[in-house]
Specification:
alpha+beta; globular
């Protein structure tokens, strides 16, 4: 199964993981050709809801996180795009004076006032050898023939003692602005060093920013696996994730949105506001080719990009309007979003749901409650982590606790699903232990895994591009609730012998892949092989080896 991410709906609002709704829709139509009620017990951003209501199915989205519930609710809302467009224009008009005050610079060629589109900030760092302080921006840039070949170097030479230094290990001191981007009298975007007026404006905002004080997220950062890195660099409160300029802009936007009387329009404007996520924070890493990432981590970059909040808001509003004009305009089903733990679906009677499609947390892959805190502080609603099915040492949850929560959730799924119907569960992990506890939880809940498909989202994840130990495509496990009770037995298994036979069966032409989106030569496609291997194992009840062990075995086999 293959479904891409580059659609108006998928791009409308960021979330840590999303299953493309057109792929979900194909599965729903296969299993429910005559209609029925769809349930997602780990709904996340609500893509199951989008797939359902777009194809005439009624749907219940069950989700623990209030931020995810808000996002899901807006994804399945059908708001008049013209009313939404007019509201966006009014919001921007009301903040036009503030926008000019915050984001005006002078064109270096014609001298006229023009809008700052972004400001690049760089940390000063200390040489680990001679303790010399220097501006990283001055020594870390490498320019290629095209902008795609420009990069920030990971290793640099100290400008004082010339020692070779690893950038990631350098001690940081302060972050300073080094570059502004704007567009004025030339047809292309221009970049220039900050002038005196730019520097004075930033200094005045750091001294006394005109914040909408009742509309800022002055929430202390709690302890967390993903929250230690920003706290280490002084971002120990949510408001400190923003520069004073961007915090000012965000607070006034949020205040203006709260004044909108129509609740549906106000909520949809809040949908735009939350879509900014990391893009307008100090976590936005500078890229020579533009844009910013919204990865499921809170790393503070050495070189950051301070995006113009109002420009970013307007751009994301256009993406959401595209969704309203295309996908949302075709909604024919009904959808309810319920903030609730998957461990207790008390609002649903036994045998009341026709199909379950769900994408549960993948063990420790993403710490959802931590990553959602950037949204939840603005919304002033927080996840109750007691029932969060996750492996997280700060929460005191290991494999045992994750297994227990997943089993409890899957038992509830089994209870509410009609006999003879299907639960489609999307999952991937590189750990044999996680696969073991998941398989056991599925079986102990009463389900039987009948088949497993590869779900190819067509674009690799951030983890897949930077980590050699991250497997590839997710699997869709087709889990049947039998009409009668069945028991599952696990036969004896010798992994190495089975793997050798499997690789011979695959053939050499399917063992390599070419990378279209990153600069890498064609290589042994161990990630996809692992996905296909796991799919075979889960349907034949064979134990699954860790991805690292599998990778080593495949490379050894290929070398012989």
């Amino acid at each position: 199964m293959s479904a891409g991410k580059n659609t108006y709906t998928y791009d409308a609002h960021t979330y840590h993981t999303k299953v493309p709704p057109q792929g979900i829709a194909e599965l729903l139509k296969h299993y429910l050709p005559s209609g029925g009620l769809v349930l997602d017990i780990f709904a996340g951003s609500g893509m199951t809801g989008v797939a359902s209501v777009s194809n005439g199915y009624d749907c219940i989205l069950n989700e623990l996180s209030p931020a995810a519930c808000f996002i899901a609710n807006r994804f399945v809302a059908n708001v008049d795009p013209l009313l939404f467009e007019a509201a966006v224009e009014r919001i921007l008009e009301e903040n036009d004076t503030l926008r000019k005050m915050l984001y005006t610079t002078s064109c270096r060629e014609c001298g006229r006032d023009t809008e700052v589109l972004y400001t690049v900030w760089s940390y000063k760092v200390l040489c680990s050898k001679c303790d010399y302080e220097f501006l990283l921006w001055d020594v870390c840039r490498s320019y290629g023939a095209t902008v795609k070949e420009h990069k920030i170097l990971s290793e640099i030479d100290c400008p004082h003692c010339h020692t070779r230094l690893n950038k990631s290990r350098l001690k940081r001191t302060i972050s300073v602005p080094v570059l502004v981007g704007y567009k004025c009298c030339r047809s292309v975007q221009c970049e220039a060093a900050l002038n005196q007026n730019d520097l004075e404006k930033i200094l005045s905002l750091e001294t006394a920013a005109p914040l909408a004080s009742s509309f800022i997220p002055d929430f202390p950062l709690p302890n967390g696996v993903n929250l230690r890195q920003p706290a280490k660099h002084g971002l120990d409160r949510i408001d400190r994730f923003y520069t004073p300029r961007n915090l000012t802009a965000m607070s006034h936007l949020w205040k203006t949105i709260h004044r909108v009387e129509n609740p549906e329009i106000a909520a949809q404007l809040g949908f735009v506001f939350t879509s900014l996520y990391q893009r307008v924070t100090r976590l936005s890493e500078f890229r020579f080719w533009g844009g910013s990432g919204n990865t499921a981590r809170f790393n503070v970059p050495f070189i950051s990009n301070e995006a113009n909040v109002f420009v970013t808001f307007a751009r994301k509003a256009r993406s959401i309007q595209d969704h309203l004009e295309t996908t949302a305009g075709c909604f024919t089903g009904k959808c309810s979003v319920i903030q609730n733990s998957a461990t207790s679906l008390d609002y649903l009677p036994d045998n009341s749901v026709d199909i379950i499609f769900t994408d549960p947390p993948f063990g420790s892959y993403i710490n959802y409650s931590e990553m959602n805190i950037l949204w939840e502080t603005w919304l002033n609603r927080f996840t109750e982590t007691k029932d969060e099915a996750i492996i997280n040492r700060v929460q005191g949850k290991g494999t045992k606790e994750y297994s227990a929560l997943m089993l409890k959730s899957l038992r509830e799924a089994y209870r509410v699903l009609r006999p003879g119907r299907w639960m489609l569960l999307v999952f991937m992990n590189n750990s044999s232990e996680i696969w073991r506890v998941l398989n056991k939880a599925i079986a102990d809940a009463g389900f039987r895994i009948v088949k497993a498909d590869i779900f190819d989202k067509q674009h690799g994840t951030f983890k897949q591009f930077v980590s050699e130990n991250t497997p590839g495509c997710d699997l869709v496990l087709h889990c049947l609730k039998p009409d009668v009770e069945v028991s599952v037995t696990v036969p004896p298994f010798q992994a190495k012998m089975q793997l050798d036979a499997y690789l011979k069966e695959m053939g050499a032409d399917r063992l390599t892949t070419e990378f279209l989106h990153v600069n890498r030569e064609a290589e042994l496609d161990v990630r996809r092989l692992y996905s296909e291997w796991v799919a075979r194992c889960v349907t034949t009840h064979h134990p699954i080896m860790d991805f690292t062990e599998f990778k080593r075995a495949v490379e050894e086999w290929a070398g012989n």
